[in-house]
Amino acid sequence: MEIFKYMEKYDYEQLVFCQDKTSGLKAIVAIHDTTLGPALGGTRMWTYASEEDAIEDALRLARGMTYKNAAAGLNLGGGKTVIIGDPLKDKNEEMFRALGRFIQGLNGRYITAEDVGTTVADMDLIHEETNYVTGISPAFGSSGNPSPVTAYGVFVGMKAAAKEAFGSEHLEGKKIAVQGLGNVAYTLCKYLHEEGAQLIVTDINENAVKRVVEDFDATAVDPTDIYAQDVDIFAPCALGAIINDETIPQLKAKVIAGSANNQLKDSIHGDIIHNEGIIYAPDYVINAGGVINVADELYGYNRDRAMKRVEGIYDNIAKVIDIAKRDGIPTYLAANRLAEERIERMAKSRSTFLQNGKHILSNR
Questions:
Q1: What is the DSSP letter of 99?
Q2: How many C-beta atoms surround the C-beta of residue 277 within 10 A?
Q3: 26 backbone dihedrals φ, ψ, rounded to 5°
Q4: Residue ranges for the chain with pLDDT beneath 50
Q5: CA neighbor of 60 nearest in space, from 282, 320, 284, 338
Q6: Rg (CA), the chain
């Protein structure tokens, strides 16, 4: 990988390598874009096959956070940290304290949070060294578990997509297939059940399935059968890349709206479902409730204020659909355009401000 060529191609600002011999820390902080504000993105810990894989993951995830934060209407840019190591065996206090010092050294350009392989306890250790961290324990004024908030965002975003597909946002009587029944999906099922939707669910975890069936009168199916269900809405809430050549021909749903990341295996699959008339709620727009929630901590966490902003996901999905119709493009591209247009507007605004400032100084 030619790092500077890659950074230039996608306009990254900064890549920081962090090493601490005592704790074994080997981390990479990628800052993609700070046009809208400081870069916010979680710290991921993973057993990468190579250092190059870790760098590529950090860069890819940081860019994704730029789009996610921009589309969510947050005054934040995109960044990400990856730690090379086994989260089950290699963690220690010194490692996260050292990472906290490195983050502090960035002077607020980057703010971290929990991600795959890291926990609230890990964020608390980072917080010992810096205030540029969110998702810490509620005892420190944090928002706590983000899953219910993420679920609520998916719920309101699904209603916006349903309005486009069916002419009404109401989900009563709608058949909805939910793939994956983790923390976010369980709460989503609760909202859908209370709305009067009929749930068809699946998960490889039998206990998770049993819980949802008992609590929300859902019907369980085998994981391989979930795609072909005769439903109105398909909600992917587990793995990514599940909208692909094999699954698309099975789909009967008119709407795809769920919490899973990277649902499209490739961009071509977004084109295919668009041509088939399926309304796709882009994942990084509809599942932004969690990042909206932790971002509120930067102002002194207020749950009512955070939930009000999460309700805005309804409008964001509606905007994406409007852009798709305006420009004649699939919604996955419209989501990118929504984020890019907001960043461009801010960049132009700042440029105008700086130019005016120079003009004033030159006339003194």
A1: H
A2: 8
A3: -135, 105
A4: 359-363
A5: 284
A6: 21
